[in-house]
Specification:
The protein is of the alpha/beta class. It is built from eleven helices and nine strands. Strand 7, helix 10 and strand 8 form a beta-alpha-beta unit. Helix 9 packs parallel to helix 10. The longest helix is centred in the first third of the chain and has 17 residues. The chain binds 2'-O-acetyl adenosine-5-diphosphoribose (OAD). The site of 2'-O-acetyl adenosine-5-diphosphoribose (OAD) has 27 residues, from helix 11.
Length: about 260
């Protein structure tokens, strides 16, 4: 349980956060599982979290897949099945509105550097940002929609359709795997470069619904601080990111983000 939110303090903090956003020409957002909590998806850590019922070593490493691909596929097929019935929540939609505000053609025309004014960097693999309508989404940990071959270059978006217990490649017949990043694996190189660039160039960095414990993603928060960006955290709880400074907006992102974006108009 998080402590009760002091609404007066929250009001002041929201005003300050809105001011920082208004002053920024370029904004980057880092999201984690918490932004999808109000859509009904479990986060990873904490009571009832995905990692409470499963050991990371059993379901989310290359070695786990080598040892017991059926177990790993059961875990990911269950998560894919969950996604058939969930919808984006007001937090996802507020981030679409934020992108609309910063990525307008006029704003881009004013920015002679040619840099993108907005990036939504996510650790989530649920596709809910895109479902809400976000356009520039950088998926650091891959996507549950996509599967790829363990032997050849076959990569395909299968949506959330039901897959066999051990799905096979249409090209070469070898085993498919989810196109997500497991522990001990590299992040997708180009996506990471774009995320690092967006972070280095922003004046305001929003951290939403992440415990900020998993690197390299969490390192973007320090990178943003290093370039002097204002860091704003939206989370009902204090996290390892909040302990390192910045402005905290304490509450669920489905409530806080719409209020924040509304203050920008
Ligand atoms: P975590 O489960 O570690 O953290 C979720 C965060 O969301 C916590 O800080 C919660 O306080 C917060 N939260 C809960 N409800 C919220 C709400 N309604 N609004 C806003 N915040 C809320 O999830 P992540 O930080 O995303 O990686 O985890 C990072 C990575 O660790 C994941 O991408 C995954 C995992 O292991 C891989 O699988 C590679």
């Amino acid at each position: 349980m998080h402590p009760p939110i002091d609404t007066d303090d929250l009001d002041v903090a929201l005003d300050r956060a809105a001011e920082r956003l208004r002053q920024a020409q370029r904004v980057a957002v880092l999201t984690g599982a918490g932004v999808s909590a109000e859509s009904g998806l479990a986060t990873f850590r904490g009571a009832g979290g995905l990692w409470e019922g499963h050991r990371v070593e059993d379901v989310a490493t290359p070695f786990a897949f080598q040892r017991d691909p059926a177990l790993v596929w059961r875990f990911y097929n269950a998560r894919r099945a969950n996604l058939r019935s969930v919808q984006p929540n007001p937090g996802h939609r507020a981030l679409v509105a934020l992108e609309d505000r910063f990525a307008q053609p006029e704003a881009q025309a004013r920015d002679v550097s040619g840099s993108e004014p907005f990036a939504l960097i996510t650790q989530n693999v649920d596709g809910l940002h895109q479902a809400a309508g976000s356009r520039r989404v950088l998926e650091l940990h891959g996507s549950l929609r996509r599967v790829r071959c363990t032997a050849c270059t076959y990569l395909v978006d299968r949506g959330y359709e039901e897959l066999p217990d051990l799905p096979r490649c249409a090209e070469c017949g070898e085993l498919l795997r989810p196109d997500v990043v497991w522990f001990e694996e590299m992040l997708p190189v180009e996506t990471w470069k774009e995320a690092a660039k967006a972070t280095a160039e922003c004046q305001c960095f929003l951290v939403v619904g992440t415990s900020a414990l998993v690197y390299p993603a969490a390192g973007l928060i320090d990178a943003a601080r290093d370039v002097g960006a204002a860091v704003i955290e939206v989370n009902p709880e204090a996290t390892s990111a909040s302990r390192r400074g910045g402005l905290g907006l304490r509450g669920p992102s489905g409530v806080i983000l719409p209020q924040l974006v509304q203050r920008l108009v």
